[in-house]
Structure formats: structure tokens, C-alpha cells
Amino acid sequence: MSSDITIAAFIGLDWADQQHVIRLRAAGSAQVEAQVVDQKPESLRVWIQQLRQRFGGRPVALALEQSRGSLLYALMNVDFLLLYPINPQNLAQYRKAFYPSGAKDDPQDALLLLEMLEKHRDRLRVWVPDDASTRSLRLLAEHRRKLVNRRTALTNQLTSLLKEYFPQALEWAGPLDRLAACHFLQKWPSLPALQKSSASRLRKFYDQHFRDDPRALEQRLEQIRQAQPLTSDPALLTASPLMVQALVAQLRPVIESIRQFDQQLQQRFSQHEDYTLFHSFPGAGSALGPRLLSAFGSNRDRFEGASEVQNLSGIAPVTERSGKSCWVHWRLACPKFLRQSFHEFAAQSIHFSLWARALYDQLRARGLSHHAAVRAVAYKWIRILFRCWKNRTPYNEAIYLAALQRRGSPLFALVSTQLQEVTCE
Fold this sequence. Notes:
The chain is an alpha/beta fold. 61% of the residues lie in helices and 9% in strands. The protein folds into 3 domains: 9-129, 2-Layer Sandwich (Nucleotidyltransferase, domain 5); 134-269; 277-424, no CATH class. The chain has helices spanning 41-55, 70-75, 88-98, 106-120, 132-165, 169-172, 179-187, 191-196, 199-209, 214-226, 234-271, 275-279, 285-296, 306-313, 336-349, 354-365, 370-391, 397-407, 410-424; strands spanning 9-14, 19-26, 33-38, 60-64, 81-85, 318-322, 325-329.
């Protein structure tokens, strides 16, 4: 939104779980007004109504230190408020410029936010929320990822615990992130418990969950019959099975919840107006497609160029210079989930895209680590993603390779060499 809009008032708001500290200056006034508003829907509604009446519904600029959360959700649909989310790192650096100790104080931060808004609004960008469909996809994708992280933590704990007293279960139960493994360990948390079970019961379990061929099943049952315990320590054999069952009791609902999130994501993603666009990228699929979509959003004016996305996501490296020294490192201050989304997509694309595989192999041959090479692939992908998103054009690998050939790109030469090697084999 243009910075030449006549603003009726400027507000710096430092939010908290219980109360929000507010500093307000009406346009043309030298006085800064101090307020505190409780974090309650009723209190926020009254405060918003007071602003509307006082300034007659004219635009009010408001700076706050967040880009999402309960307060932003409460304010984003108020028609006369122009919201300017400030990056916490930016506010921290601004604070240090005047208060070297770096000590945080809510009233002080509200005043600093007000000052940043009044003096530097031309360098800030007003926040425009995505449509409801896109916001739903973003929240579903982020919550699903948290559940996946929780599942990983629980399976790592289970793996470590089973290795101490019942390592055979890591093979016999199957992958620990599956419900079949939960059923196995809930029934038979130790080798003695497993060996006490009848062959017919074990056969029924494996037929239901694994469907092995009869010969492989009989071999597994024989392994179970002849297995020897790793330890006979009674203390370990008393406590560890209980802990395994406790972890399984936590893991089972997490696995089921991930399945429910997957269903919701697939349904909402397939109904989104940008589904065809983001589904077209090689390796995106039903899990990473929604994450790419929510990374760019529905507002085509949010980013002016691909470099903004590269910097914001932390995929672009940081170059620092001091005197004759110059060094490059990866960006630490960035939205971690956003960076993770681009990184994981780039890693998947290597298996489906000719140029992504060629570029990755070249970088690995130069000595780059796997993750550094994947980040380089992600850096190039963001430029392509941005252009497709901006023009609402689905990705087409053949068209992109033809464009590389027309430009005489070295990357096309790599792809051609790789294709020739595959043909010769």
C-alpha cells in the first residue's frame, strides 16, 4: 500500500499473553498516549471500536512484533487498520542501537515500534492477509510438520530403548512409525511375552499387518521361537517394557492424527485455485505442494522479486565483508519452517527433475556437502517457482529445458551429458 495515504494515527503495540502495551500518536500531535489492553476478545473489540469512533474510520497504521498469532488474527479483518508486522530480529537490532544492554521492556518496545513506524514507514510493507483457503493450508502444513517431528522423537526414543533389551523387535515389528509396530509392541513389549504367544496368534497378526509369503512368515516364526534375550537383568526387563508401552500409547494417536492431517491437506489442496500450478512441480506431491503454495501465498504483490523469497526463506547465503576479508555463510535469522519447505522440496526434486539432478551431481562432484548442494538447487528452484507463481503458469520441464538450450546454458549441457551417459548404459 502506498506510503502517501493520509494516516489518522500511528500505533506501536507490544503484545503479550495477558496484556498488550500500546503507544499511540495522533497525526499532527506531539503527545504519545499510553494504553494497556487485556488479551481478551471483549477488551480488543472495545478498543477497536474506540479507535473507529475517535478517528472516524480513517486509516490507522499499527506496528506489532509478529506476523501471525492470536492478536494478528483478531486485527487482520479490521478495515481501517493498516498492519505492519516487524521482524523480531529487526526490532532487537533497533533496540540495541539505543539501548546497548539489549534489555527488553514492553513499554519501551511499544515506543520503539511506534518510532520505527513513524520514521521508516516508507521502508515497511503493509501486511495483506492471504485468503482463508491459503491460510488453512499453511496452518495444516505447519501443524502436520510438528506432529511429524513428534513422531520422529518418539520413534527415536523407542529405537534407543529397544536396543537396550529387545533389539529383535526393530526387525519383527516393522517400521516404528507405522500402526502395525504400535500393535506389535503393545501386545509384546518383550521377548518373553512374544515367545509365550501361540504360533496361530502370531500368524494371524502378520497376515493382517504384513501379508508375508508363507515361507517368509514361517522363517520369522522360527526366528522368534529360537531367539535368545539380549539381557536377563530383571530390573531392565521390568521397567523397559512398561516404558515401551507408554511411548507406544503416545505414538499411536500421533500417527493417526498425521493421517487425518494428510487427508485434510489433500482435500483442501486439490480444491485450491493454485492446485494445478503447485502440483506441477516435480517432487512436490500432496505433502510438499501445499507447503510451497502457502510459502508464496495468494497475494501476488507480496514479493517484488525472487530474491526476496530467497532471502526471507534463508536459502540465499549471506556475504559479509570487513576490510580485505570476505566470507559467506548460510542465513540463520529466517522462518525455519519456510526454509525447511524449500530445502525438502529441492531434495525431492532431484529424483524427478533432469536439471535438478544434473546440478546436484555437479555440485557434489565439486566437493559440496549434500545439504549445501540441495540449498543451491533450492536457490535456483525459487526463481522458477516465483516466475510460475507470478504468471500463474504451471511448470513444464520440457519447456524449461528448451529455454536453457536456447540460452546456451551450461546447465543444459550437463543435462545432455547425463542423458547420453544413461543412454550408453
